[in-house]
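Async update (no meeting this week)

Hi team, since we skipped the sync, here's where things stand on the single-chain job. The sequence we agreed to prioritize is pasted below, unchanged from the tracker. I ran it this morning and attached the output directly underneath so nobody has to dig for it. Comments welcome in thread, and please keep replies under the output.
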Amino acid sequence: MKNRRCIIVGAGDFYGIPVEIQKDDLVIAADAGYEYLKDRGIRPDLIIGDFDSMQVKGVKGVTGPVSGLSIFADAEKAEYIHHLKHMEIDGVETRVINPVKNDPDMMACVRIGLAEGCREMHLLGGTGKRVDHSIANLQILGFLAGKGCRGYLYGRDQVITAIRNTSVCFSGTMQGYLSVFSLTDTSEGVTETGLKYVVEDVTLNNLTPTGLSNEFVGTEATVSVRNGTLLLVYEYHSASCM
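Output:
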């Protein structure tokens, strides 16, 4: 099925499921994210991980006493997702990743979601605990935007998404702050309309936080970028028209 939505639950800080799971959604648990779903009586379609944060019988989940391994030669290859070790946990199809890898578990889940035809990814349990994992998940949003897909990363009260060479519209019901940052070295032709501060055809860079804390004012708002990738951070208690 094409254009499916993928819901991925990781092992980071978890604040519930802010999107209603639909019948055709692909639900993936990343490692110990399975425990969050299990506690809520939700059965994922897949469990994927190296299982360093959740103990699984017969799976080590750690690299062991190794050093000096060179792994970046295959950093951009995704064929490995089709050759993962298969097993079951509680009757759920499970794919085990070798802990000596380039992709974190969340990225492996995203690659599998893309292989299944998903174009919209919702990443839960992907912030907090380890800031390096949070940064990695922001990069995943940029990766998805570069493929013409849309990813959403959820925190406690905010959601982050990324857009590349396009525009996005928010409804007049939105409230609170909207921050816009360049994920690429520069983002050219950035325009923000319908917000407290009007931004017209500016260039943002990824070394200065110029786009912090614009505000919704009760009118439809638009953010666009002509050339580059933007991170958009906003409160998600109100619906948008994206």
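Quick observations from my side:
The mean pLDDT is 87.
The longest helix spans residues 131-146.
Reply here if anything looks off.
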